[in-house]
Write a structure and sequence with these properties.
Strand content: under 5%
Radius of gyration: 44 Å
Subcellular location: Nucleus
Keywords: Nucleus
Number of helices: 15
Largest sheet: 2 strands, antiparallel
Number of strands: 4
CATH topology of the largest domain: Zinc Finger, Delta Prime, domain 3
Mean pLDDT: 79
Low-confidence stretches: none
CATH architecture of the largest domain: Up-down Bundle
């Protein structure tokens, strides 16, 4: 849609300059010309930066007027594309005097101001001045030398790195317990740069049983910190070699190429040992959590059964005399409990011997 509108605008401007009336015939001519093969974006970059793209039939450079018309058409097609302007910015730094480069930089600032007004205030009336940026840039820096045009990768790399950084921060918030309540700025500026060095102490790559008490304490502390922040090491194939790298990659997030000589680095064997220890701790934690969640839930039937068992245990309790007779090898008392009868009767536990004396009298 934008391309169609730009084409119609260009057709109207061209017709007005040539004193022609915009008719369907003119529109069809423009459409057929566009269908016949529109110039690629690389050709348009070259047209802005090189004078050799503006030659006449005799091989001479066209006049400024003709070149301005050509650049106006390019600006009408790419005036709102950040990709096109980014390509110009990436390719204009050729062997030019510093004064020319400085002047070109001021025009890039002018274009940034236009885009800021458009996007911040939604004021599209200044878009009509964007063509002056392309025309002025061509008139100031266009050269006879051939410019090696390359597709701009800077913004794409920034987008990819930003996405990877956001994924790393999200992983730390979702996995790690210690960093869950910290903001992005706190993680990036206050915590992670120091954690990268803390969790990589000078530990020798050997069996855990061979460590001294101090080395073992350092090793366990490293594992504990990495577990708290949800970190581990993962085997990754780099240049036909297995390397154990941070997961999530906090070292890439917080360390910069200028700091490469100072970057701490553990041996792969040590990183593998730490990763194995972290895996064991996570498995134990998962097992304990699963065991706690699978505790038996007490139902009403279980409660009734417990009450009955408790009553049975109470009934099986022996009196002091019975315990004494058991100790002396004598038979225990048989206890009768009066359950029914007159409600005013005194309920009392009696033994067979007492019952015999009550009924038959003492002999």
């Amino acid at each position: 849609m934008r391309h169609s509108i730009n084409t119609l605008q260009w057709a109207a401007v061209t017709a007005r300059k040539a004193n022609r009336i915009v008719t369907m015939k003119l529109i069809n001519e423009v459409v057929e010309k566009e269908k016949g093969g529109a110039a690629s974006i690389f050709e348009h970059w070259s047209a802005v930066l090189e004078l050799s793209k503006h030659t006449d039939a005799k091989g001479g450079i066209k006049s400024v007027r003709e070149r301005v018309y050509a650049i106006e058409r390019i600006s009408a097609e790419h005036g709102g594309e950040d990709r096109f302007v980014s390509g110009l910015h990436s390719n204009y730094l050729v062997s030019l005097p510093i004064g020319v480069i400085r002047k070109a930089s001021s025009w890039f600032e002018f274009y940034d101001d236009i885009q800021k007004i458009i996007h911040s205030h939604q004021n599209w009336s200044v878009q009509k001045y964007a063509f002056s940026f392309f025309v002025s840039l061509h008139l100031n820096i266009a050269t006879h030398a051939r410019v090696h045009i390359q597709y701009p990768q800077f913004e794409q790399n920034i987008f990819l790195k930003t996405k990877e950084s956001e994924e790393t921060i999200s992983a730390l918030h979702s996995i790690g317990q210690a960093g869950r309540g910290a903001s992005k700025n706190q993680l990036l500026l206050d915590l992670l740069p120091f954690i990268v060095g803390i969790v990589q102490p000078p530990i020798k790559p050997m069996n855990e049983s061979l460590y001294t008490q101090r080395e073992l304490s350092t090793f366990n502390q490293t594992v504990s910190i990495m577990c708290d922040y949800g970190l581990t090491y993962t085997a990754t194939m780099l240049k036909d070699q297995v390397n154990w790298l941070f997961t999530p990659s906090i070292d890439v997030l917080t360390m910069f190429p200028l700091e490469e000589p100072k970057r701490p680095y553990l041996a792969n064997a040590t990183r593998q040992l730490i990763a194995h220890k972290i895996t064991l701790m996570r498995v134990r934690l998962a097992d304990s959590t699963q065991h706690s969640t699978q505790q038996k839930v007490a139902t009403n039937a279980d409660k009734i059964k417990d009450i009955i068992d408790s009553e049975n245990r109470k009934q099986k309790r022996l009196s002091a005399g019975a315990v004494k007779r058991i100790e002396h090898g004598k038979l225990t008392d048989i206890v009768f409990i009066h359950q029914d009868g007159d409600s005013s009767a005194v309920k009392k536990k009696v033994t067979v011997q007492q019952m015999n004396s009550i009924i038959f009298g003492e002999s």
